[in-house]
Amino acid sequence: MTFRGTYTALITPFRDGQIDVPAFQALIERQIAGGITGIVPVGTTGESPTLDFDEHIEVIRLAAEFTNGRCAVIAGTGANATKEAIELTQAAEKAGATGTLQVCPYYNKPSQEGLYQHFKAIASETALPVMLYSVPGRSGIEIGVDTTVRLAADCPTIVSIKEAGGSVERVNQLVHALPADFSVLSGDDPLTLSFMVSGAVGLVSVAGNIIPETMSRLVNLCLAGDFNAAAALHKETYPLLKGLMSLDVNPVPIKMAAALMGHCTNEFRLPLVPMTGEGPTKLAALLREFSLLS
Length: 294
What we know:
Distance between the termini: 42 Å
Radius of gyration: 18 Å
Shape: globular
Strand content: 5-15%
CATH superfamily: Aldolase class I
Number of domains: 1
Helix content: 40-55%
Number of strands: 10
Order of helices and strands: EEEHEHEHEHEHHEHEHEHHHH
CATH class: Alpha Beta
Number of helices: 12
């Protein structure tokens, strides 16, 4: 299996402190109707750090149940402890996930050799295809290009990387150094066009939670080589994509946007809290500008 296309990093709806199962199912149905390739439950956008182990796996199980084979389910099962990541990944595999997203270990800041050994150990304990996730803004380090190349060569099930470091040059380096069948995906909605021009073949999207059709169309235009049409769509949607990532820390703006549109409550688990100050007013105005809110 390879990862190519549009994958939405799902929010996790809550209601009265619990997972809001009906809202989660409706969210998934909108994703499938919007033409996405797959969903990514319990990633950063899904508030995975605030879910306990059982909740984490339950969200993945529900995602697999609700999709029922209609799209890929790439479960966020990374951790900064290798043993924990293996346990989460094996549980996700049993729960019906079709792939796993493995974030770069955070806080303990391992060396590149430590990263190599970490991901290699996880890959050896699961049959799921693995998408690496390099996000230095949250983990403090990135998965080096050379480390990615080693993993691609030594671990047949490590087949992709979600690149969220904000650098087009790094995408160029990865695409040049990696095998042709190893996919690079954008981890930043506003940078998708630039990344795909440089050789990325897809996107893990935050904005897809509320505009799956648009994000799927952008990626499909790029995959078809119609970069003129993709550039026009990118220009049209860029203010929304930028606002959803800059008004507050992800996933606060996207969950509030979904709440304003009536898809879920605006409920978070501490330490995340709803936007305050001018943020809600700016977000509502942005949604109205794009006819997403009356």
